Predict the structure.
Amino acid sequence: MIIREFRRPDIKRVFEIEVSSFDDPYPSSVLLEIYNLGAGFLVAQKDNSIVGYIIFWIRFEDEGHIISIAVDKNHRREGIGSKLVETTMEIFKKYSVKTIKLEVRVENVQARKFYKKIGFKEDRILEKYYEDFEDAVIMNKKMD
Ligand SMILES: CC(C)(COP(=O)(O)OP(=O)(O)OC[C@H]1O[C@@H](n2cnc3c(N)ncnc32)[C@H](O)[C@@H]1OP(=O)(O)O)[C@@H](O)C(=O)NCCC(=O)NCCS
């Protein structure tokens, strides 16, 4: 498995993973727009096929933000999500990021467990954060 930078032709597979991972997927045009705005975008590739991706950016100079991460259902619990976050953290380190933040749906218990396992702490609840009014948990991790 390799982690590499996103390339435009990857969008078809990334979008398939997005759709099968989220009830409220970003349209592929929005994913591309975020990329065009300068967000970091990495994909995990296994046997020539894309099996996961992560999108992130840096705001307020030293705060890294994970916008989205998803792994193909057939390849979960293989360490791919962890590897995507690890690689992102290496990039953040180069840009002197001090804290990483993200929002996750309160009911996304799997993702909350995943983030906790890789060292994120739950900070606080953002009430009715999502369009369907579900609350978000803000999670953060201090860089070493
Ligand atoms: C969250 C997600 C990216 C994790 O990817 P992954 O490649 O399966 O994660 P990893 O294999 O690196 O898991 C690392 C550890 O996290 C924890 N973990 C991961 N998925 C878990 C689950 N479903 N239930 C409980 N713990 C879980 C485990 O401790 C796991 O280690 P283990 O397998 O040795 O027990 C993946 O489940 C996914 O794509 N979910 C749907 C999209 C999503 O919710 N994204 C986050 C939105 S904020």
Notes: The domain at 2-142 is CATH 3.40.630.30 (Aminopeptidase). The two ends are 26 Å apart (CA to CA).
